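Continuing the series of single-chain predictions for the mutant panel. This is the parent chain; the variants come on the following pages.
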Amino acid sequence: MTKPQTFEKPMGFRDFPPLIAEKKRLLEDRVREQFVKWGYQEVCTPALEFFDTVGQSSQIPVSRMFKCMDRDGNLLVLRPDQTAPIARLVTSVLKREPLPLRLFYHGTVFRAQEKEAGRNSEKFQSGVELVGQAGPEADGEVIALAVESLQACGIGAPTIVLSHVGLLEGFLRERIYRDEAIEKLKETLEVRDLVAFRRILEELDLSLEERKEIMELTKPGLEGKDWQKLSASAKTEEVRDKFCYLKRVWDQLQIFGCMSQVKVDLSLVGSLGYYTGVYFEGYAEGMGFPLVSGGRYDQLYQSFHTDLPATGFALNTDRLLEASPLKPVSPKRIAVFYEPHLQQEAYRKVRSLREEGCAVIMQPVESRADRTPDVDEVLTIAGEGEWSTC
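Parent structure:
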């Protein structure tokens, strides 16, 4: 192992220069404003958590967690996701608070990447968790809030792709009786490998009609009439109930006025195993990666010895930085140079300019020999207290 150079950073981590950091703060402020308007309250959780609690409850593979030991020999992990730490918070610090809880966060998650992956190991996220409320009203609320949050970040016409993990699972089990085959099918859908999905389907002992029904169900861009028609082919009451639930979520989105941004794709399964019901992703026009993902995860809280329904989403701040056309509006930047004996008079001027909303740098005249700061205007006070402008 070679010693890292002074300019090097760990793989997957990066610096944010001023302009990007300023845009990141702008997007977080825009998102926070929407969260607060919908009645959500901010929480913060530590960067380090115990592996035996949060680490084992998280659906992030252990191989992708950053681990270390504390002085007592306890195994710790850098926060791999936000949902599990907030579940710990809800079942401890907030356990006596009335339900439902509407919580939001801004923060980082840490996930180790393969050297060849070229992905970030430190990911910035903003998101919400609606804890303690079941039903389509809660699912509709978080989806509508996700739409408004993307719009607040300048994503003019976001598209929400809506699915139901439990519906797909139940529909497959009505026709396929091998758990291994179902898992393989879901794995191909997770990576959007539809060619492999069709190949596995062809190898299974299914009737032509059953194969056709599964292909129809997993066809991207289903319209309302399509998936409602498919509900008639459900063989069990359980699957029919899930179709009915999806219809009720659809009706909620009509009430919230965002149905035009939503399309149904029941082949969407997500990449985290804790989703149990509705799952969705949000996209900007012309971009192939999701800016937001979320859904219902009603079983996670069992890891913390309680049983609470929950739903929520996370905005990928890193991707929003690429997709958002918004640009921060910076105050006018002024550099004030002064001779040493005029420092007090210079400061009076500087304070006045700052009260007017300007960003002011104050430096001695002798520092002018160095590189001039990146500013809009330069003021100098010298001699008998005379001001000059450059």
